Amino acid sequence: MKSRDATRRSFLGTGALAGAAWTACSAPEAEAPAEPDQPSSLGTPVSRYGQRSPHEKAARGVRESQTPEAASSRTPLDQTYGIITPSALHFERHHAGVPEIDPATHKLLVHGLVDRPMAFSVDDIKRLPSVSRVHFVECSGNSGGEWSPAGAPTVALSHGLASCSEWTGVPLRILLEEAGIQPEAKWILAEGADACLMQRSATLEKALEEGIVAYGQNGEAIRPEQGYPMRLILPGWEGNTNVKWLRRIKLTAGPQYVKDETSKYTELMEDGTAWIFTFEMDAKSVITAPSGGHMVDGPGFLEISGLAWSGRGKIRQAEVSTDAGQTWTEAELQTPVYSKAFTRFRLPWAWDGSETVLLSRCRDETGYLQPGRAELIEQRGRKSAYHCNRIKGWHIAADGSVTSAEV
Amino acid sequence: MQKSSLLSIATLVACAAPTLVAQTYGVGRPATADEVAAWDVTIGPEGRELPAGSGTAKDGAQVYEVRCKECHGDQGVGGDHAGLVGKPEQLKQTPPLKTVGSYWPYATTLFDYTRRAMPFEEPGSLSADQVYAVTAYILHLNGLVAEDDVLDRESLPQVVMPNRDGFVRDPR
Fold first, then answer.
1. Residue A323 has pLDDT above 70, yes or no
2. What's the predicted TM-score (pTM) here?
3. B residues 13..72 contacting A (CB < 8 A)
4. What's the mean per-residue pLDDT of chain A?
């Protein structure tokens, strides 16, 4: 130990000297420490739970709200890599705050049109056969600002109510079959343990085919903001149906027409009628780099990168235009491509320094092509607040500044 | 809190159907009728699950004054949060006016949501009578019930909301 201390002092001394020399000839950043060729001291010891580098500042976008418990925060999609959203940056949309739940006492009740109403503890659920699946969750109000020609100024604001995780849990089918599904059951009602007892109806068909009661997110327990200790995942369906803090599932003959599937999350048409149970999220893509708020540091090579996803299956193709839509080039998709998951696309590009607009569009495995704004409005009118999946453009000015392109 | 013995009985009856034998893992435990009744606050559009209790718009005006007005405005208009009064014609204006009166298809939804999620900062704190009363008041503001009409588990589902037929299944 003695010799080790001596060595450390010696290194510290050298470092201090080197630092002084470096400081003398770099006046503008006089406080910055020297970076020696080799670290001059030992690093920090092992720790029980890792933290990101203090240099990394990516954060969810939070807007001032009178009711911060019934509000949303947005994923800074331009500060994430690949297809997985770090759990700490997963977007939030709460309606009555994040409840504090003790997993030792939490239970999931399955009842209604079943043979045997059942209660499952968290431990019960973890005993059952599990699956892990990569899926996006997207608020159906995501990109609501894109109904306007101007669109939102950054990708967090325009598309940040979507995130993608590896979810681990038990197929909902197993839990429902433990209770015995009666033939009259055609729908489920899912309820959360938050203060407003958030509820949504969903079809039994979807629940049986793809529903997951998830307790894991990206390799660890689901974060409280994402539904700890368990949430419903209905892959590809609007975020609100993926009920967090799941505590009750009732099998029913029909939908319940709860507030969040009538007053909210319905699509008003121009004639005054409204589409209800608009579950699937249509295919959507957005370029994340470069994107609004970025400054491109001069002409030259620049990788264009973005995300595409569809609530109806896999992304088959992503295309990028670097000339405001005159020509389109197929981008490379990161593999494997998962169904109903973020799909990263990338395109090598050399910016010539002149003003232009970058666009992306995607096609999913059903053949559906992401529409432009005019086409979407032709289909839906202008009164809908949800499910906006129009093509997004980023304008690059000659000085390299990137802003939302008006369409 | 809003448990009623009738609700418990209804649940018991619903669960007493013949058992189909399916392969199961034997994990989890049977839920008791009491614990199901305690949590089963679901109210469908036919209102069969509505609890005992009653109230009028006249009673509800007092509840509204104390528990609702701060956010939803005087007589359901002009508050910082969801507007409560309107007519379906106003869905065609720009921007559309989506309120209980103009948009919501079922009166049962108003009762259900108010009971479990309102007032915002104290959800679940209103008695069944208070929820019936404030529901009656909001429906009265929309011209759908008279001031002295008694709303209860029988009469509430009879209220036909003006936009009941305004919803169509997703045609995408």
1. yes
2. 0.90
3. 14-15, 17-20, 22-25, 27-31, 33, 35-36, 39-45
4. 93
Interface residue B120 vs chain A (CB under 8 A): yes
Q: Is B108 on the interface with A (CB under 8 A)?
A: yes
ipTM, two decimals, is 0.87
CB within 8 Å of chain A, chain B residues 76-105? 80-82, 88-89, 91-92, 94-96, 98, 100, 103-105
Give the CATH number, domain containing residue A374: 2.60.40.650
**Is A6 a domain residue?**
no
Pairwise CB contact (< 8 Å): B25 & A178 = yes
> Does the beta carbon of A65 lie under 8 angstroms from any beta carbon of chain B?
no
CB atoms within 10 A of CB B56: 19
A131 assigned to some structural domain: yes
State how far the Cα of B32 lies from the Cα of A225, in Å rounded to an integer: 30
Class of domain B52-166: mainly alpha
Indicate if the pLDDT at residue B10 is higher than 80: no
Final residue of a structural domain among A253, A275, A297 = A275
What is the spatial distance between Cα A403 and Cα A294, in angstroms, rounded to a whole number?
8
d(CA A337, CA A83): 10
Helix B128-141 to helix B107-117 angle (10° resolution) is: 130
Domain-embedded: residue A100 = yes
Residues A324-335 have a mean pLDDT of 98
Same domain for A91 and A206? yes
Q: Residue A178: which CATH number? A: 3.90.420.10
Nearest CA in chain A to B38: A109
User: Are A172 and A247 within one domain?
Assistant: yes
The verdict on residue A163 lying in a domain is yes
The residue-averaged pLDDT of A152-164 equals 98
Q: Bin B76: left if φ > 0, else alpha if -120 < ψ < 50, else beta.
A: left
Res. A265: pLDDT tops 60: yes
Q: Where are the alpha helices (DSSP H) in A197-328?
A: 204-210
The count of residues in chain A is 407
Q: Which one has a higher pLDDT value, A16 or B68?
A: B68
Give the per-residue pLDDT at A180: 97
Q: Which domain holds residue A337?
A: 284-404
User: Which of A207, A242, A275 is the last residue in one of the domains?
Assistant: A275
pLDDT tens digits, residue range A116-137? 999 999 999 999 999 999 999 9
Q: Which chain A residues contact residue B81 at CB under 8 A?
A: 67
Domain identity same for A81 and A228: yes
- Identify whether residues A221 and A293 lie together within a single domain: no
Helix %, strand %, coil % for chain A, to 5? 20, 30, 50
A160 and A238 both lie in a single domain: yes
What is the crossing angle of helices B128-141 and B57-67, to 10°? 100
Contact residues, chain B, for A174 at CB < 8 Å: 25
Domain boundary assignment for chain B: 1-40, 52-166
A255 with A118, same domain?
Answer: yes
Query: Do A274 and B166 meet the contact criterion of CB atoms below 8 Å apart?
Result: yes
Total domain count for chain A?
Answer: 2
Chain B closest-CA separation from residue A252 CA (Å): 9
Q: B89 contacts in A (CB within 8 Å)? A: 272
| Same domain? A206 vs A348 | no
Contact assignment for A263 to B31 by CB distance below 8 Å:
no
Pairing of β A107-112 and β A246-252: parallel
Rounded to an integer, the average pLDDT of A261-283 is: 96
Amino acid at A331: A
